[in-house]
């Protein structure tokens, strides 16, 4: 006798009850970390993947793997049932779906619970058995939930019962049970009957990471000041290394943070932990951490390397006793999150280059950014603008200042002027003897000089006079090269210097052999004391009769 179908309304009500009774996973604590597959709601995965989940089938040989969501936006883990035509047969008392196999688990790692976001398409011919959505646990098949015969969504997610002790295996799939009636289940074939849009798995491990101090200034005792480095190696074979800190007397003075905030858009995330595998982060790390000793008071202090894995387990490696000597506590901070390990960048807005050829009247825009050693913005900071003209003996002079926005960026329009070096300087704390970060730009402005000759026509044995002046920033004793054209080349024949008004003159007498020829002269500015790049006047022509 065929078992009657459940009423659709009662089935839908059962599914709604399933969603309503689901509870959110408890907040992660030391020993517990998360692994995500595909695309759970509210979690932004850079490269979606099914990770260690794999297809399983018990007594259901027609199961098809339709999708694994690997690196596909909007992808999912899906299964269907194969048949040449008509319906696909799922044998009675069989089940199939996806599982986290015990063989895939890292040593010391086990499953606490799984939250899943699932939809089904279980349209069946009349008078066939019920199709069930089932979460399977080791030694406990768990509750069976009869699914509707139409597309069914569980948008709120389904949370498995907490496994205590933690389970090494978890299955999520479809089951054909029919209440023990023994009938096969018939499904429309070659289509996704079960779609797992995403999972959030809580894993547990309580193994401390390992590591050692391998070098750097803070690896040895002695007097330390300002920025100092510490080299390290770190490892964790379970959840992976998520963070490494340099700690002096309980104060974090430098770190390598590999974590990612998956609630942010992918483009805004930092760190390289993926949280898509049984190892949420890389199992081995090494590097050099820049530490800021000014964050702790002067005196004898203990250095510690602290390694934290993705599950929150910690390992502290004792370093040497050092003497911090920075000359007292820092002054007032310059900006939010001020640090002497700041990084400052400045570039011309129209190009990524750090030097530009300009006209004297040009006022290009400069864009910059100020961040700390972790790339986080330092907002509300004053950045000094220093200029040094391109001239012998010139020194940096502060000509202006600019303030960073909340995101650490700033814009600044340069003043008109000669060739010069522009330096943007950030002082982390008032009273610091030198800037914590610098970024420099260069401008090249060509000298402008005029030159006229008289008379324009001279007799052999006669003389001419070339006069000129500097058109920008007149200055005394600027070297002027008088040049004559020899074929296609200009040749220097005399040098003169400008007077206090920036003018100059030069006299020349032609020999008898110059008769019948035309000569070209020009003035060239090329002086170490004049803050411009080389400039030439227009050519002046003289005809010798």
Entry summary:
The protein is mainly β. The chain has one helix at 8-21; strands at 32-38, 54-58, 63-68, 77-81, 88-90, 94-100, 110-120, 132-136, 144-146, 152-153, 158-159, 170-176, 185-187, 194-204, 210-215, 222-224, 227-235, 241-248, 251-257, 284-292, 299-309, 314-324, 343-348, 355-358, 365-371, 382-389, 397-403, 409-413, 420-426, 437-445, 449-454, 457-458, 463-470, 479-486, 489-497, 503-509, 518-525, 535-536, 540-544. It folds into four domains: 8-204; 210-324, Immunoglobulin-like (Sandwich); 343-445, Immunoglobulins (Immunoglobulin-like, Sandwich); 449-544, Immunoglobulins (Immunoglobulin-like, Sandwich).
- Helix fraction, binned, reads under 10%
Question: How would you sum up the major sheet?
Answer: 7 strands, antiparallel
Distance between the termini: 131 Å
Mean pLDDT: 83
Number-wise, the strands total: 39
Strand content: over 45%
Number of domains: 4
General shape: elongated
Multimeric state of these chains?
Answer: single chain
- Helical stretch count? 1
User: Which structural class is indicated by helix and strand composition?
Assistant: mainly beta
What's the gyration radius in Å? 39 Å
Unreliable residue stretches: 1-29, 125-156
Provide a descriptive summary of the structure in words:
By secondary structure, the chain is mainly beta. The protein folds into four domains: 8-204; 210-324, Immunoglobulins (Immunoglobulin-like, Sandwich), CATH 2.60.40.10; 343-445, Immunoglobulins (Immunoglobulin-like, Sandwich), CATH 2.60.40; 449-544, Immunoglobulins (Immunoglobulin-like), CATH 2.60.40.10. Helices cover 3% and strands 46% of the residues. The chain contains one helix and 39 strands. It has one helix spanning 8-21; strands at 32-38, 54-58, 63-68, 77-81, 88-90, 94-100, 110-120, 132-136, 144-146, 152-153, 158-159, 170-176, 185-187, 194-204, 210-215, 222-224, 227-235, 241-248, 251-257, 284-292, 299-309, 314-324, 343-348, 355-358, 365-371, 382-389, 397-403, 409-413, 420-426, 437-445, 449-454, 457-458, 463-470, 479-486, 489-497, 503-509, 518-525, 535-536, 540-544. Strands 1, 3, 4, 7, 10, 11 and 14 form a seven-stranded antiparallel β-sheet that branches. Strands 32, 34, 35, 37, 38 and 39 form a six-stranded mixed β-sheet that branches. Strands 2-6-12-8-9 form a five-stranded antiparallel β-sheet. The longest helix is centred in the N-terminal third of the chain and has 14 residues, at 8-21. It is elongated, with a radius of gyration of 39 Å.
């Amino acid at each position: 006798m065929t078992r009657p179908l459940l009423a659709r309304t009662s089935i839908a009500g059962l599914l709604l009850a399933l969603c309503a009774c689901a509870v959110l996973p408890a907040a992660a604590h030391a020993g517990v970390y998360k692994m995500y597959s595909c695309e759970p709601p509210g979690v932004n995965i850079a490269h979606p993947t099914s990770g260690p989940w794999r297809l399983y089938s018990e007594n259901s040989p027609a199961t098809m793997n339709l999708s694994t969501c690997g690196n596909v936006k909007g992808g999912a883990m899906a299964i269907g049932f194969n048949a040449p035509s008509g319906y696909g047969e799922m044998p009675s008392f069989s089940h199939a779906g996806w599982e986290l196999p015990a063989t895939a688990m890292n040593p010391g790692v086990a499953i606490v619970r799984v939250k899943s976001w699932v939809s089904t398409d279980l349209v069946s011919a009349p008078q066939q058995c019920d199709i069930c959505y089932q979460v399977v646990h080791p030694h406990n098949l768990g509750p069976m939930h009869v699914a509707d015969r139409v597309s069914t969504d569980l948008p709120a997610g389904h949370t498995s019962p907490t496994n205590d002790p933690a389970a090494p295996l978890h299955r999520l799939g479809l089951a054909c049970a029919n209440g023990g009636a023994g009938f096969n289940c018939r499904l429309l074939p070659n289509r996704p009957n079960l779609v797992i849009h995403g999972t959030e798995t809580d894993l547990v491990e309580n193994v401390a990471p390992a590591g050692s101090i391998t070098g750097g200034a803070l690896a040895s005792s002695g007097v330390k000041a300002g920025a100092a480095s510490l080299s390290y190696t770190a490892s964790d074979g379970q959840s992976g290394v998520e963070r490494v800190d340099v700690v002096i007397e309980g104060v974090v003075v430098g770190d390598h943070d590999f974590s990612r905030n998956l609630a942010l858009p992918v483009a805004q995330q930092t760190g390289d932990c993926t949280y898509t595998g049984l190892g949420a982060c890389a199992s081995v790390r090494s590097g050099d951490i820049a530490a800021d000793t000014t964050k702790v008071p002067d005196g004898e202090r203990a250095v510690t390397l602290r390694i934290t894995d993705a599950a929150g387990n910690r390992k502290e490696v004792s370093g040497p006793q050092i003497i911090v000597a920075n000359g007292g506590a820092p002054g007032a901070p310059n900006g939010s999150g001020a640090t002497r390990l700041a990084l400052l960048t400045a570039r011309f807005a129209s190009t990524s280059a750090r030097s530009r050829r300009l006209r004297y009247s040009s006022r290009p825009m400069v864009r910059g950014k100020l961040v700390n050693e972790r790339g986080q913005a330092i907002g509300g900071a004053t950045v000094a603008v220093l200029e040094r003209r391109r001239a012998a003996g010139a020194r940096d002079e502060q000509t202006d200042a600019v303030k960073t926005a909340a995101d650490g960026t700033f814009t600044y329009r340069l003043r008109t002027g000669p060739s010069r070096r522009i330096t943007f300087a950030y002082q982390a704390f008032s009273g610091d003897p030198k800037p914590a970060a610098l970024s420099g730009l260069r401008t090249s402005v060509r000298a402008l000089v005029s030159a006229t000759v008289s008379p324009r026509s001279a007799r052999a044995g006669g003389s001419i006079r070339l006069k000129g002046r500097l058109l920008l920033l007149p200055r005394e004793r600027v070297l002027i090269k008088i040049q004559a054209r020899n074929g296609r080349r200009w040749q220097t024949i005399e040098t003169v210097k400008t007077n206090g008004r920036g003018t100059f003159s030069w006299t020349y007498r032609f020999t008898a052999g110059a008769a019948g020829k035309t000569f070209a002269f020009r003035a060239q500015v090329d002086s170490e004391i004049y803050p411009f790049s080389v400039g030439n006047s227009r050519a002046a022509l003289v005809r010798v009769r």
